[in-house]
Amino acid sequence: MSVIKIRSVAPEDNEELAKVLRDVLIEMGVPKVGTAYEDEALDKMYETYDQPRKIYYIVENDGRIIGGAGIARLEGESEEICELQKMYFMPEARGKGVGSKMMGMCLEFAKEQGFSKCYLETMPYMEAARKLYKKTGFVPLVSPMGNTGHYSCQSWMIKEL
């Protein structure tokens, strides 16, 4: 019986987490340029999220990282808008309600931090993720917001908190 655990990112997670996130991006066929794949933050997730109004949650299965998701202020927008960031899961975490649980934890944190809206970027072909976002109340936008640097992402959504 596997034990799935959700917790905040720790310094010792950086290397394994970077590999997991990049592996999922490659599996999903996400371009390596203009997406989260090339973000410097991927190699130092603990340091990136160990700041006010930011959090990154890790999903572990029997001590192995199998995914994660985070919240941070959306760069280049008002202080009231946050972004759901780097929400990716290995195949073994999918279809088990982990994404819904992580989404709930992230949005609850965002509300506690005083954000009024949550933005996200994804790819049009990420059907399961888009279905979860819609179910959670995210609505499509016609153009991107903020300064994420993810010019290859072609689908943007927002939710009132």
Largest sheet: 7 strands, mixed
Q: How many H/I helical runs? A: 4
Physical arrangement of strands within the biggest beta sheet: 1-2-3-4-5-7-6
Helix and strand composition category: alpha+beta
Gross morphology: globular
| Average pLDDT over all residues | 94
DSSP E strands, number: 7
Could you describe the 3D structure shown?
With 161 residues, this protein is an alpha+beta fold. 27% of the residues lie in helices and 29% in strands. The chain is built from four helices and seven strands, in the order E-H-H-E-E-E-H-E-H-E-E. It has helices at residues 14-27, 45-49, 98-112, 127-135, and strands at 4-8, 55-61, 64-73, 81-89, 117-122, 139-141, 155-160. It has a seven-stranded mixed sheet with strand order 1-2-3-4-5-7-6, with helices on both faces. The chain is globular and about 40 Å long. The model has no long low-confidence stretch (mean pLDDT 94).
